[in-house]
Design brief:
about 500 residues, Rossmann fold, four-stranded parallel sheet, elongated
């Protein structure tokens, strides 16, 4: 059906109007999406906060100007060619004049793009050189740790540490728990600030954890004395024995905490080395664990309980591979063959509990092994009092970095001790003067040591008395606290007395 020219005109106007409306909506949407700056002279970019931002802004704007200019020229030529060489009614079918073999034009088509690329390269390289120039002294130093969808900003000069919470996108085990721990740790600074306002703090003491740098940073900002206690290389331990999703983040937090601490107290030399490898803080000290000798005291039998059955060989601690409890079960199986009154008492819980029960059944001693499980701290003195010999059966470990609390508790309880000759155990036991040392991971030698003490009540009593004296004179927590306070640049000398109710 024929269509009038006026109808065509109206349709054309409606089409143009519709296109214009779409363009306007898109433009308005873009402006509202930006929502930061509507000034066209800076390319609708947000206001920069540094001198370098102006360099980036100029490069961005003029790159777009060049691109638009080339676009206008190219599209203009295309449209002109479409109009000038369109098919007409009087065309005889001949082709337009071709451009091949037109050397000047071919040179033009080659040279002009090269000049354009060269110009863009020059200005880009010039901007890059200015941005990467570090010859001037910086106004502030910022250590930045990048993670997926998150950043950690450590303002070194101001001792300010901002830990970003990483988005959980991968579903990797442990990621959600780690993010939650970070958020909880961030609240520590607010709590300290509140406590400080109510009653000014003299000392902030924190036990190092994987996701908590806030307390040490707060103490440094407020010029409050601080101590960070480090018991283990937690990053390596978590990665090897548990689950660690964000190792880089954990290392960054550890470094921030070590750097900010007024004093870093470690429980052993290996832990001290691990700390010093990750910080420039020179205030790193070794102060081993201790024991409350007022809480844990010798039982009335004083090492001679074994005169009456049963004879109890005991262990206190978690049931994990690095404690060597399976070696103790094997050793006890040898003792039990010749000693019908001997019993093994394992106090603690852990992932090896089921395996140890199975091992006891395999050795035919299940009815003589008591798997007590975890007990409340207030029940520990009674558990130790039920033992005749206490054992620390550590296996052969490549890196023995902990300070074994069980040994100090055994000594305080006045128990004869059998321990593996590894790590700090020889020093704690005075190279055998306070206990019997055996080769790590050797059940036969451990069994022989247990049987020897079983036959010698006098030696058990002597070792128990000597161990108790050593615990009181060298390892009491009051003495440990005093050593820790000595590492603080300006400690309150009365703080240990306040904590322990004692006078200097």
């Amino acid at each position: 059906m024929p269509v009038s020219s006026s109808a065509n005109s109206r349709r054309t106007r409606r089409g143009v109007g519709a296109i214009g409306l779409v363009i306007a909506v898109v433009a308005l949407s873009a402006c509202s999406a930006v929502g930061v700056n509507t000034d066209p002279k800076n390319g609708y970019l947000p206001e920069g906060v540094t001198d370098e931002s102006q360099i980036v802004e100029n490069l961005w704007i003029w790159a777009w100007v060049a691109a638009l200019a080339v676009g206008v020229l190219v599209w203009g030529l295309i449209l002109w060619c479409m109009a000038a060489y369109r098919r007409r009614k009087d065309d005889d079918g001949s082709l337009p004049v071709q451009l091949q073999y037109n050397v000047p034009l071919e040179i033009l088509y080659t040279v002009v793009p090269m000049l354009m690329v060269g110009a863009l390269f020059y200005y880009t390289q010039d901007a890059t050189t200015k941005l990467q120039d570090v010859s001037q002294e910086p106004d502030t130093t910022i250590n930045i740790a990048a993670k997926q969808w998150s950043w950690d900003f450590n303002y070194v000069d101001d001792d300010v540490h901002e830990v970003g919470t990483q988005a959980i996108l991968t579903g990797e085990p442990g990621a959600e728990r780690e993010a939650s721990a970070r958020r909880s740790a961030a609240a520590a600074a607010d709590l300290l600030e509140q406590l400080h306002r109510e009653d000014p703090l003299d000392l902030v003491y924190e036990r190092y954890s994987l996701w908590s740098p806030a307390a040490m940073a707060w103490a440094r900002q407020r010029a409050v004395a601080s101590v960070l206690e480090v018991n283990a290389p937690l990053v390596d331990e978590q990665a090897e024995h548990r689950v660690l999703a964000d190792r880089d983040g954990a290392v960054g937090i550890a470094t921030a905490a070590f750097d900010a601490a007024g004093s870093v107290v470690t429980v052993s030399a290996p832990v001290a080395r691990w700390v010093t490898e990750r910080t420039d803080n020179t205030a790193v000290h070794v102060v081993p664990n201790g024991v409350d000798t007022r809480f844990i005291r010798p039982a009335a039998h004083s090492g001679r309980r074994g005169e009456q059955p049963p004879f109890v060989i005991g262990y206190v601690g978690t049931l994990k591979p690095w404690h060597g409890v399976e070696v103790l079960v094997d050793a006890f199986a040898r003792v039990a063959r010749t000693d019908p009154h001997a019993r093994l008492r394992l106090v603690g819980d852990g992932p090896q509990r089921t395996g140890l029960a199975d091992l006891a059944r395999e050795r035919g001693i299940a009815d003589r092994v008591d798997l007590v499980g975890a007990v409340a701290p207030e029940d520990m003195p009674a558990e130790l009092a039920a033992m005749d010999i206490a054992v620390a059966p550590y296996p052969r470990l490549p890196d023995f970095y902990f300070s074994p609390l069980k040994l100090y508790e055994y000594l305080a309880a006045g128990l004869p001790v059998v321990a593996s000759d590894i790590g700090p155990c020889p020093d704690i036991l005075d190279d055998g003067g306070l206990g019997v040392l055996v080769r790590p991971g050797d059940p036969a030698e451990l069994a022989a040591a247990l049987a020897g003490l079983r036959r010698d009540p006098t030696m058990r009593a002597e070792l128990g008395r000597a161990g108790r004296r050593a615990a009181e004179d060298r390892h009491d927590w009051s003495l440990v606290v005093a050593r820790i306070l000595d590492t603080v640049p300006a400690p309150r000398t009365s703080l240990a007395d306040d904590l322990w109710g004692r006078t200097a």
